[in-house]
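lol forgot to send this yesterday, sorry. struct tokens for the thing we talked abt
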């Protein structure tokens, strides 16, 4: 467990990001003291770069250095965890399975749910600004409407957002869910008999497509979203993989009091 005399860790985020939610969930679960420093997209790069990170969030600033990848963050935090809270099994074969699944979710599920969610959202300035300004400092909130056209264009290019890519992304999500359905087959967790980094990563990175209640920050309200999008959320929630992630959010996602 973390030495309480040390400075709290600093988590730099774009608060709505599901990769940031992955890191935030691990910090909350392991009861590690931290301060979340949220930024609006684009502005976040000033914070990450000035702390020795790269362009992407989450970034965790620790006494041992700056970590700029969610998986590196989970590994670091696991080193601070008490035995019964560890996110990676000690048994090598089980650990390897957890790491392989985490890699699958990081590289396939996370990009797909992000691409799908942005492709479904109406091209609505008010909605996107609401999503991006959450938790950001007042000065960034004030500047966000000015950089909005640039930001929207960058988002579309970087994540290849279009109606067609949204359809393909939904299929990618379904493919990963099929794999998870197969792994669950009556088991309460993805690997072995306890919660691991594989479950946490799956639930956090699936969250944009499932909209679980206990997500770390408030997302958009259902009435703000298109019916087609909500119908696909419902469809995914009804799969064993979707139900698994929803259960994990209900039973395993606790916020510090
Ligand atoms: N492999 C990275 C991916 C993180 C990632 O894709 N972060 C996105 C937010 S969801 C980001 O920072 N995008 C902004 C940018 O790259 O400028 C991780 O696991 O931490």
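and heres what i got for the seq, position by position
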């Amino acid at each position: 467990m973390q030495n309480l005399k040390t400075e709290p860790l600093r988590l730099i985020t774009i608060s709505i990001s599901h990769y940031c939610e992955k890191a935030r969930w691990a910090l909350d679960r392991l009861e590690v003291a931290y301060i979340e420093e949220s930024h609006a997209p684009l502005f976040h790069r000033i914070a990450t770069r000035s702390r020795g990170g790269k362009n992407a969030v989450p970034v965790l600033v620790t006494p041992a250095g700056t970590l700029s990848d969610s998986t590196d963050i989970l590994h670091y935090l696991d080193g601070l965890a008490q035995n019964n809270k560890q996110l990676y099994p000690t048994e090598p074969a089980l650990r390897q399975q957890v790491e392989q699944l985490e890699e699958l979710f990081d590289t396939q599920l996370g990009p797909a749910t992000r691409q799908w969610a942005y492709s479904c959202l109406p091209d609505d300035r008010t909605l996107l600004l609401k999503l991006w300004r959450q938790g950001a400092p007042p000065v960034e909130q004030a500047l966000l409407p000015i950089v909005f056209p640039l930001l929207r264009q960058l988002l579309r290019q970087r994540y290849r957002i279009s109606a067609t890519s949204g359809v393909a992304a939904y299929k990618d999500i379904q493919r990963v869910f099929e794999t998870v359905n197969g792994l669950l087959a009556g088991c309460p967790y993805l690997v072995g008999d306890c919660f691991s980094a594989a479950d946490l990563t799956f639930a956090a990175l699936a969250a944009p497509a499932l909209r679980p209640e206990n997500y770390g920050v408030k997302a958009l309200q259902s009435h703000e979203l298109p019916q087609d999008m909500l119908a696909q959320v419902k469809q995914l929630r009804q799969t064993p993989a979707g139900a698994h992630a929803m259960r994990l959010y209900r039973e395993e996602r606790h916020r510090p009091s």
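The two ends are 18 Å apart (CA to CA). anyway ping me if u want another try
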